[in-house]
Amino acid sequence: MTFFELIHKEETARARAGVMHTDHGDVETPVFMPVGTQAAVKTLDSSDLESLGAQIILGNNYHLHLRPGEELINNLGGLHKFMNWPHPILTDSGGFQVFSLGLQKEKSVDRGGSNAKLVEIDEEGVTFHSHVDGSKHRFTPEKAIETQHKIGADIIMAFDECTPDSIPEEYIRAAMERTHRWAERCLEEHKKIKVDKTGLIKSPHQKFLFGIIQGSNNRSLREESAKFIASKDFDGIALGGESVGYNMQATKDILDWVYPFLPEDKPHYAMGLGLSPLDFFDVVERGVDMFDCVAPTRLARHGVAYISKPTKDEDNNYRLNLNNAAQEKNSAPIEENCACPTCQNYSRAYLHHLLGANEISALRLITLHNVYFMLNLVRKMRQSIIEDRFREFKKEWDK
Amino acid sequence: MTFFELIHKEETARARAGVMHTDHGDVETPVFMPVGTQAAVKTLDSSDLESLGAQIILGNNYHLHLRPGEELINNLGGLHKFMNWPHPILTDSGGFQVFSLGLQKEKSVDRGGSNAKLVEIDEEGVTFHSHVDGSKHRFTPEKAIETQHKIGADIIMAFDECTPDSIPEEYIRAAMERTHRWAERCLEEHKKIKVDKTGLIKSPHQKFLFGIIQGSNNRSLREESAKFIASKDFDGIALGGESVGYNMQATKDILDWVYPFLPEDKPHYAMGLGLSPLDFFDVVERGVDMFDCVAPTRLARHGVAYISKPTKDEDNNYRLNLNNAAQEKNSAPIEENCACPTCQNYSRAYLHHLLGANEISALRLITLHNVYFMLNLVRKMRQSIIEDRFREFKKEWDK
Fold it and tell me: Do B350 and A75 touch (CB under 8 A)?
């Protein structure tokens, strides 16, 4: 069976419905993937994710390498067993974290100079310091692939350098070209592990490797990167970059630039996208099949819930702040017709009280809602694609 | 139907099995009651408590009066509806909190003097300042009963002064005598609300009022208090005091002193007890039917789980610290034969990792185990009473 199966393409848009087949089950696309960076989707456990209907979740190679370490996870039978999640998992390679968490400490974003003391890039790889304990670590493309095989997700990512937008073009080009050379080394190591090093890996299921398009907000670099990554033997194609998911105009532009070069028979993954429900429509109609975002869980931990009604506040659209005094006496659930366990059982007044009383139960209850909200929206979106009414469904939302 | 039904008395001990009948269902005693001070058992939600088999949970009148307030809870239909817990609830009157949380701020424990500025006691009642925002509040016995009726638990407590052990006997006596006068006023107000003020109360189910024995660690005062409280028309008899549950030798002594005066046809409640699993045996064999303790939830939030095996560490007996490096690679659950959702699904290694990574999911998972552990132990204890093998069951534990 092929990994990715295209089920239906919406007639009036590039929106697609598909299925990814993995040894841990199928993933129906488009799909929202909850983020479980450190082997847990924050505040939840695997039973919660199961009950919400999550199909696939994310882990992070950088974080899991630092803590608890890929050796421990491998020795305990792999990440599925470690976190008791029998369904598909994707790990990001940690490229984004190596650079962003390293640079945060120094507040230095100029990659052109030599001031990024905590992160040293050379042709071979990257030396960085743990944000946990300051200890020195090194990732090469080969190492990042090996650690991901040991962690044992179903889908793993090439090791890339995620470049900011506001740096000189020559640096973006140099980084992109290095990312391409690293992509080839990742592919090679991936094949080598499958053939020569299988004894090392305790979770023997098949692993699929995705390549990542970089090039910041530069059209010709993005096109060049798309062509390159598409030409290689990856199982899927991802779109990386600082603005993806955070600057939606830039995200849409980049998707429009690269779309002509994306192979139709491979899944397309927009990395770190899902700040607003509307963002899903914007990328699905540009041919994206997969996305993940920490916003639903992070906002929940600040007492903010997603709602289906636009709130006409540009920065907080489709959001309800349960901390607000307006919710103090409100006996309604977050959303009247929401089937999530929180809306089925608790009022806004109760959640408002728990937040005010610093009861962490509130954080989980709002997270349950937010994750369900995103999963359910994308499930409905997929159905609308299959029924050739994606545009109408979008109009119901984007008023 | 009577409120309390004695089912069986163990032949070789004072241990009893009974049932409390309430409008929200039966409670089989002896019973461990998880503590949900602020309308939530910390880290859990009502569905969790349901799945653990909790029969009755606690709320706190002091905390709920301050936040969100009894008016709000009453207007939303009462505490059962507010927190979506359809089973029995008991609220403590807040006597303990008014004195302990008030005094904490001043670090003044000498009740004989006039230095307890944050808590002013007079014959009528107590004026205190909120630990939340410093605002001034006043509880009289009448007020504490009215707020509890508005909050709407099934079992409510008389408003008492919980005295420390290390204060002059004359103060303990004065406080105890005042507590007795307040107990009578509580009973009167309780009857008045049932007759005259039912229109005020949105949750019309029957409420049962318990009296509280005080007298610190003074035998003659405890006996006098037991006689007095037992002579009144309370639905149950509680044992209060600073040392109850914290100084087990004192707790056992006090129980032995008061036992002859406790009416057999009313439930006996040891307030704030359950630090160690063995404590349950010590009080159940002295005729106690109900107990509550924050230890199972508080310890869980520090990464400490209860286990069935004595650890021979006096301060940490029957406990496993999941933060310890020894658990880092341990693929076993907290307890091999535990049926709790945490032991059914997760290893010590995973919980250790989540704690180290500051994932709050860990706090809930360990809380689920600890609460289940206590509920399950007391369920088994009840069965052993019914089968006349309580002593043998105790021996299995107390090695």
Answer: no
Nearest CA in chain A to B368: A45
Q: What are phi and psi of A36, to 5 degrees?
A: -120, 60
pLDDT tens for chain A, residues 1 to 399: 799 999 999 877 799 999 999 999 999 999 999 999 999 999 999 999 999 999 999 999 999 999 999 999 999 999 999 999 999 999 999 988 888 775 444 434 444 444 445 788 999 999 998 888 889 999 999 999 999 999 999 999 999 999 888 889 999 999 999 999 999 999 999 999 998 887 899 999 999 999 999 999 999 999 999 999 999 999 999 999 999 999 999 999 999 999 999 999 999 999 999 999 999 999 999 999 999 999 999 999 999 999 998 887 766 789 999 999 999 999 999 999 999 999 999 999 999 999 999 999 999 999 999 999 999 999 999 999 999 999 999 999 987
Q: From the CB of residue A348, how many other CB atoms can be counted at a distance below 10 Å?
A: 22
CB contact under 8 A, A45 and B347: no
Going by C-alpha positions, the residue among A108, A110, A111, A143 that lies closest to residue A124 is: A143
Whether residue A43 and residue B331 make contact (CB cut-off 8 A), yes or no, is no
Q: How far apart are CA A290 and CA A27, in angstroms?
A: 10
What are the chain A neighbours of B67 within 8 Å (beta carbons)? 353, 356-357
Kindly list the catalytic residues of B: 92, 292
- Residue from the list B43, B47, B359 with its beta carbon closest to the beta carbon of A42: B359
Candidates A44, A350, A364; nearest CB to B83: A350
Among B335, B290, B282, B328, which residue's Cα sits nearest to residue B308? B335
The residues that bridge with B321 in the sheet, in sequence order, are B304
Query: How is residue A17 annotated by DSSP?
Result: E
Q: Is the dihedral of CA B309, B313, B319, B320 positive or negative?
A: negative
Two tokens, residue B393: 């069951």
Q: Residues A361, B40: contact at Cβ < 8 Å?
A: yes
**A328 contacts in B (CB within 8 Å)?**
68, 72
**Residue-range domains of chain A with CATH:** 4-293 (3.20.20.105), 303-373 (no CATH)
Helices A219-231 + A169-196 axis angle, to 10: 10
Interatomic CA distance for residues A59 and A156, integer angstroms: 10
Could you confirm whether A92 is annotated as catalytic?
yes
ipTM of the complex: 0.96
- The 10 Å Cβ neighbour count of residue B220 is 11
Residues 6 or more apart in contact with residue A251 via CB below 8 angstroms: A243, A244, A245, A270, A273, A279, A282, A283
The closest alpha carbon to B10, from B277, B391, B394, belongs to B391
Which residues lie below 8 Å from residue A346, measured CB to CB, with a gap of 6+?
A333, A365, B45, B83, B84
Query: Nearest Cα to B40, choosing from B23, B55, B60, B22?
Result: B60
pTM of this structure: 0.96
Block residue for tokens 């899944």:
A267
A347 in B contact zone (CB under 8 Å): yes
Token readout for B373 is 């552990």
CB pair distance less than 8 Å for A353 and B328: no
Q: Cβ contact (<8 Å) for A38 and B353?
A: yes
- Cα B71 to Cα A211, A354, A357, B41, B65: the distances in Å are 59, 17, 17, 21, 8
Q: At what angle do helices A361-386 and A348-356 cross, to 10 degrees?
A: 140
Closest CA to A374 of A338, A347, A326: A338
Residues 72-101 of B with CB under 8 A from A: 72, 75-77, 82-84
CB atoms within 10 A of CB B313: 9
Q: How far is A82 from chain B (nearest CA, A)?
A: 6
Q: Are B341 and B368 in contact (CB under 8 A)?
A: yes
Q: Does B38 touch chain A (CB under 8 A)?
A: yes
